[in-house]
Amino acid sequence: MTNENEMKDPVLPLGRPTIGSAGNTGTWRSSKPVFIEEKCIKCYECWLNCPEGTIRVDADEEYPYVDYVYCKGCGICVHVCPKEALEMKPE
Amino acid sequence: MSIKIPQLLNRPDVLLRGNFACAGCGLSIAYRTTISALENPIVVIPACCASVIQSLHPNVTYNVPTLNIAFAAHASAASGISRGKKRRGEKVTTVVWTGDGGTYDIGVSTWSGAAERNEDILHCCYDNGFYSNTGAQRSGATPRGAVTTTTPTGKTEKRKSITRIMMAHDIPYIATASVGYPRDLYTKVKKAAQIEGYRFILIDAPCPTGWNSDPAITRELGRLAVQTGYFPLFEVENGKLTFSRRSERVRDPERRKPLEEYLSKQGRFKQMTSEAIKALSKDLQREWDLLARFE
Amino acid sequence: MVQTSEKQKIELLTGNESVATAVKLAKPQVIAAYPITPQTTIVETLSKMVAEGELDCDYVNVESEHSAMGAAIGASLSGVRTFTATSAHGLLYMGELVWWAGLTRIPIVMPVVNRSLNPWNIWPDHQDSMSFRDAGWIQFYAKNNQEVLDLTLCAFKIAEHHKIWMPVMVCLDGFILSHTSAQVSIPSQKDVDEFLPPFEPLAILDPKDPFAHGSLTDSQGIWEQRMSLIDGFENSRVIIPKIFAEYAEKFGKLGKNMIEITGDINSADIAIMALGTLGEEAEQALEVLNEKGIKAVVVRLRVFRPFPRKELITALKKVSKVLVIDRAVSFGNAGQMAIEVQAELYTHKIEIEFHQIIRGLGGMDVTYMEIAAEVEKIM
Question: Could you give the CA distance from residue B92 to residue C25 in angstroms, rounded to a whole number?
């Protein structure tokens, strides 16, 4: 091939940010955190300490919720909740 | 400065969900807290757990520009980025994100050189006290007595004091922080971000898989490390050391929670005799005393 | 001959000064380097140029070669033209990252001032650069100081060509070139600026458009990247001669070919092959041989990677014998160039007499008389 325009471009080792790039990590779980909204005071400690980013808060003043597609069920959120507004339930 | 959580809620999602990190990973909390505090971060990651949790090409978990580089090349690669971006007139925060293996052991030459040149780099070391990525082998950060896969009867040497080595470089800012106190970590990162030159933050990051601990108590282990005096929190600014509030509170060994409370929650310390615990306590107190000389 | 360019300046330069002069003309923005004999005067000259404001560039005084290449990779991905240089053990010490730069396509230009790897010997042979011939770098071997300057300037343009986009190693024999002065014609800055456009990155670490470079990749992804690197080298076979030709047209130096043939190949009986200064020494042997009635030519590979097989085959088809002189050894086999030339001869069914010798290790002098004698032996 002598025409430069027809030559292939280099394939560079670039990965792009993608949610769920390791698959649906929720399947790793054996038990899951469940909110008891009446007890929740919206302190968002669960959100702050969640390693996964699977405790979601859509906007200020709203209740947090769990993205079960990806939550690995570590239980940190349950452990850090000051009001026992979360509990682990078997899958 | 006290940080309220609602202030943080709109922080960028720097570590996307659905990644390869183990459940309850301390590194993930440390990364999320640190990187989200920075403006225009560019992160350099050598071989470590952080290079694995980013998941498989062509997708990645990190939502910020990331350069993966060889184990012992983090701070040199970051030097190149920092210099190049300045040349281009782009304002970025160049971050080195390493585990303790990359900071305490194989990468000492590269960061020591960069620190001596006072490159404009924020070096963060998430410290779990062993080589977690390769399956829990001993590192220079492993505490005396801890079982790893290469110290099956417990490590016989003391943990290296990376902060004191770092202090010998006279860099403008050094801090220790913990996954146990994300707000304290966030505050220190924000402070470091305002300073130019080589800055170092050592972050205690519990590893449930390698420590053989319950993933749910990652934060609690971080807190116990501070409350028992195992991991003192402090800042060093222009050579002057200040213990952070939570560690100042336990400066007097009498006021600390018993070390056993921290050790007993981790499989890696299970085999330790009371003599071994005494030896570890002695190491810890010696480190406190040496640090106090720089106040 | 040179019509388009401004007047060129002739100066007496060492090989290392020729490198530094070319680098200054190429205007890199970050240089990261660590001193090692015989590369040292390259980095000394460049740091002086930077300190005196002749070259507007960040010079990073790194603490090792490993860090030199690390900084070069980082700087290149930050979006600026980047340069480093090394020799022998320095090349080995940065080896991990030499491969990193090769396999992840970082367009760095790096002269390797050839030096023996034996402890301790600081004199030239090709064992150092030859051990990196497979690392995904384009490799040039220069025969004199003029070619050092010419190849270094071309190296930037070739490395940064968007259909190539890979690092380039410019090899020059330690001391024989690096520390020996010779007349070198230096092009004007204006002409170089026309020849070499500013750095135009294909990928840049940018908070506005984040990507992870070199992240965990499965075999399928690695396959794609490796195949692309093979394609890149194939592209370079076409593009390198074009860039050489453009350079020749503009500056009157450097032929358009990846190999240089000295003597009349159409009437020659034997081709002598050697890299770098050994090639030039072999040129001196031609006259001696001619007096003895032996018609020889020198076939010198100016480019070793990509291996210029098409040009080489065309040349070797015209002779009945070839003598390959290697300045390095693939232990347990033979000289690297000999092995590769043999493979081409076999693949293309060129049935000529093949001879190989290894000479000049650890800086051992190889004279044209000795080369002539070797040729005589096999005629």
Answer: 29
Q: What is the CATH number for C298?
A: 3.40.50.920
Count of domains in chain B? 1
| Same structural domain, C246 and C263 | no
pLDDT in tens, B123-176: 999 999 999 999 999 999 999 999 999 999 999 999 999 999 999 999 999 999
Contacts of C68 in chain B (CB under 8 A): 76
Chains near A with 3+ CB pairs less than 8 A apart are B, C
Question: What pLDDT score does C1 carry?
Answer: 42
Inspect the interface and report whether the beta carbons of B109 and C75 lie closer than 8 Å. no
The model's pLDDT over B26-60, given as tens digits with 9 standing for 90+, comes to 999 999 999 999 999 999 999 999 999 998 999 99
pLDDT tens digit string along C264-319?
A: 999 999 999 999 999 999 999 999 999 999 999 999 999 999 999 999 999 999 99
Among residues C99, C129, C128, the alpha carbon closest in space to that of C303 is found at C129
Domains annotated on chain A, with CATH: 25-90 (3.30.70.20)
pLDDT > 80? residue B106: yes
Of C251, C270, C285, the one marking the end of a domain is C251
Domain residues for the domain of C76 are: 9-251
DSSP A76: H
ipTM of model over 0.85: yes
Within a 13 Å sphere around the CA of C68, how many CA atoms are in the beta-carbon half?
28
Q: What is the DSSP letter of B102?
A: I
Domain end residue (candidates: C251, C278, C301): C251
Q: What percent of chain B has pLDDT over 90?
A: 95
Instruction: Please tell me what DSSP assigns to residue A63.
Output: P
Q: Does A15 touch chain C (CB under 8 A)?
A: yes
What is chain B's length?
295
| Maximum Cα–Cα distance across chain A | 72
Number of folded domains in chain C? 2
Q: CATH number of the domain that B147 lies in?
A: 3.40.50.970
What backbone torsions phi and psi does residue C105 show, to the nearest 5 degrees? 65, 70
pLDDT tens for each residue of C121-157: 999 999 999 999 999 999 999 999 999 999 999 999 9
Report residue A22 as tokens. Answer: 């390791």
Cα–Cα distance measured from residue B106 to residue B104, given in angstroms and rounded to the nearest whole number: 7
Closest by CA to A37, choosing from A68, A67, A81, is A81
- Other C-beta atoms lying within 10 Å of the C-beta of residue B120: 21
Is the Cβ pair A15, C163 closer than 8 Å?
A: no
Residue B75's nearest CA partner among B98, B92, B54 is B98
C213 and C309 inside one domain: no
Measured in degrees and rounded to the nearest 5, phi and psi for residue C184 equal -130, 135
